[in-house]
């Protein structure tokens, strides 16, 4: 019967998330702020990986949360909250990329800084210069992928999501996720053949 | 049966992701441990994952929640303002006390009715009645009577030529509207 | 939001434009090529109780004028042009001058003058529907009165 299904579906959501979601559904902005604090970094990472542009990523990440807030009454707990959130994020990215194309540049700066710091402290497994080159090429290679391929590899890298979860987010089969991941990794490896 | 390098490399990513069956996992593990080339491939995949995650983490680490939340909060409040402004705009339209739109709408409706008649003769309502409208009348010193008979919608202009005869003349009460004589 | 606030004003502006446009549109209504005027001259009297069979279709209407006898003594049809005078001879040295002025909203505007020689008796402007008519009566004639039936029709 339908009510039982609903109860079952709710179990999928982590109790704490579900509790906060229910509060949000009554218009509690504070509860939504808690959810945002919990997921904003990962959502931002996913979007940054797909768009490869810091300012755009920030804008789209905030827009993602705003849309989630507006639509949260429609969320029935049929999937995990973060899966639902990533779905909104990916759709926003795809819409955004359809609207405009940007050249990748700004994430590279962040990576440069990261590598510099790690090289300086001796914690990076690579030589600082070599690492810079690797990441630079990684981003160039990432940019050559389609948004769908970027989305699978980023979702997997950032959140370690299962193929099932990724398939739910992207609205495709697990087999498609597997083949896209395989293709994306292969492409990236080819581009970084001398550095990995 | 042991797996060859090609099949292992095809599923190596899925194996690292924990997305292969128990049996397949055992076979891949055995192959990778024994095969230096596939071990190197595994290592490359792991490094790729590491570099990608590290880059994105670094990018995200620079965004503080306060500034991030500020952007969301701004959108929420703007959305509410837009919502409120919409209702502020709609309210006078709905409430009868401020039917500002009613004037132009009424004008448009009246004009539409009037001009529909002109442009679509088949509509058939035509002139409001058969009554002739007398716009001006001048008897040049003679007495005149203008009679309009409502039942037959007849208009009669009656001229009293002579005052002596006037008393003898029966006053007309109505006249015909029949279209032909 | 400004756009929303401007909407009623825009509606008003559009309707004013429509009003502005309506005048030329109304004027643009094509006037028919001329019109037919049919003038019937009826002698009404109390001298007999004869009713002219040619007036049978008007019998009910004419009877309410309270004369006992009605006779059609003349009928004249003319095709006339807009804004040009049409003259109809009326018994007793009278004449009826009709000036078709305009055709608008399926209504004809006629300026009608009844003259006794050169002397004006009645001067009137009447709007009729197409195929409509009105009566002008009163002038004395042969022991009775004349009733002029003025009928107008576009071709």
List the helices and strands and how they pair.
The complex is a heterotrimer of chains A (196), B (181) and C (155).
Chain A (H helix, E strand, L loop, with lengths): L1 H11 L2 H11 L3 H23 L2 H18 L9 H19 L6 H16 L6 H17 L2 H13 L3 H8 L3 H18 L5
Chain B lengths: L4 H12 L5 H13 L1 H26 L3 H30 L7 H18 L13 E6 L4 E7 L4 E7 L2 H6 L13
Antiparallel strand pairs in B: 2-3
Helix pairs in contact in B: 1-2, 1-3, 2-3
Chain C lengths: L1 H26 L7 E11 L13 H5 L5 E12 L5 E5 L3 E11 L2 E10 L2 E11 L2 E10 L2 E10 L2
Antiparallel strand pairs in C: 1-2, 1-8, 3-4, 4-5, 5-6, 7-8
The radius of gyration computed from the alpha-carbon positions of chain B, rounded to a whole number of angstroms, is 48 Å
Strand content of chain B: 5-15%
Quantity of strands of chain A, as a count: 0
User: If strands are numbered along the chain, what order do they take across the biggest sheet of chain B?
Assistant: 2-3
Would you identify the CATH architecture of chain A?
A: Orthogonal Bundle
The biggest beta sheet of chain B is recorded as: 2 strands, antiparallel
- The termini of chain A sit apart by 53 Å
Number of domains of chain A: 1
Tell me about the largest β-sheet of chain A: none
What would CATH call the class of the domain at 5-62 in chain B?
Mainly Alpha
Would you tell me which CATH topology of the domain at 5-62 in chain B applies? Arc Repressor Mutant, subunit A
Q: How does the overall form of chain B come out from the CA principal axes?
A: rod-shaped
Could you state the order of secondary-structure elements of chain A as H and E? Answer: HHHHHHHHHH
Taken in chain order, the helices and strands of chain B follow as: HHHHHEEEH
C-alpha termini separation of chain B: 115 Å
